[in-house]
Amino acid sequence: MGRPRRPLLDRERITTTALQLIDEQGDFSVPRIARRLGAQTGSVYHRVDGRDGIVELLRERVASAIDVTTLDLRPWDTALEAWARSCRAAFAARPRTIPLLMTSPVRAPRVLEQYERAVALLRDAGFGADEVMPLLVALENPVLGSALDLAAPESMGELAQDTPTPLLAEALAAVGEGRADRAFEVGLTGFLDHARAMRAARA
Q1: CATH 1.10.357.10 domain span(s) along the chain
Q2: pLDDT at residue 6 is higher than 70
Q3: Rounded distance, CA 75 to CA 169, Å?
Q4: Which residues contact 35 (CB under 8 A, 6 or more apart)?
Q5: How far apart are CA 172 and CA 157, in angstroms?
Q6: For the segment 40-53, what is each residue's pLDDT rounded down to a tens digit?
Q7: CATH number of this structure's domain 1-48
Q8: Over residues 155-180, mean pLDDT
Q9: pLDDT per residue as tens digits for the range 172-193
Q10: φ, ψ for residue 95 (rounded to 5)?
């Protein structure tokens, strides 16, 4: 028999299978990936650095959808806003990966390079080294939270008749469509206004 045109296992197929399992079950394991691919668990370990290595492959796959050229825009706040929107869209496409990715340190080289560009953007804009990471984390929080929110039901609550909450009922009825998008705009605008004020204070 001739050799197969592509190997049974490679990092791309392992990553795709892990994503399928996350979409279906909310998590993955190396043995489940192996079973799905019809391979031995040891064969998967031979190609990736265990579960942590697969998490980093997932991180790179999700991050590959982020438009890093947004970080080349100027002025700095335009770049940061465009990058945030691109990040939100990338994570919103894979919301069930967020808990996995956010509970482990970043090791993926391509993702670290993207953060390096974001740090350079803020340093070039005049922010101090001690201000950069709080700003980036503060930006990530509404981005990732909103990406999860986009996958949530449009209504934030189911009101019980035996619990009188008339003001909440009025607010829920008045919000209309696009609640998640509107909430994201509030958070992003607040972040950018605060970052601009921080920069102005250093001037």
Answers
A1: 67-202
A2: no
A3: 42
A4: none
A5: 8
A6: 999 999 999 999 99
A7: 1.10.10
A8: 84
A9: 889 888 999 999 999 999 999 9
A10: -65, -30
Mean pLDDT across the stretch 63-91? Answer: 98
* Helix residue spans in 26-108 (DSSP H): 30-37, 41-47, 50-63, 76-92, 98-102
User: Within 10 Å of residue 72's Cβ, how many Cβ atoms?
Assistant: 11
Amino acid (one-letter) located at 42: G
Integer Cα distance of 122 and 133 in angstroms: 10
23, amino acid identity? D
- In sequence order, the 6+-apart residues with CB closer than 8 A to the CB of 73 are 79, 82
What token pair was written down for 1? 């028999």
Superfamily (CATH H level) for 67-202? Tetracycline Repressor, domain 2 (1.10.357.10)
pLDDT band at 123 (very low <50, low <70, confident <90, very high): very high
Where do the CATH 1.10.10 domains begin and end in the chain? 1-48
119 vs 116: CA distance, rounded Å: 5
| 8 Å CB contact between 63 and 90 | yes
Number of Cα atoms under 13 Å in the Cβ half of residue 65: 14
Q: What is the pTM of this model?
A: 0.91
Q: Which of 2, 1, 39 minimizes the C-alpha distance to 17?
A: 39
User: What integer is the mean pLDDT of 63-90?
Assistant: 98
Say how far apart CA 69 and CA 90 lie, in whole Å.
Answer: 14
Write out the H or E segment, with its range, that includes residue 146.
Answer: helix 129-150
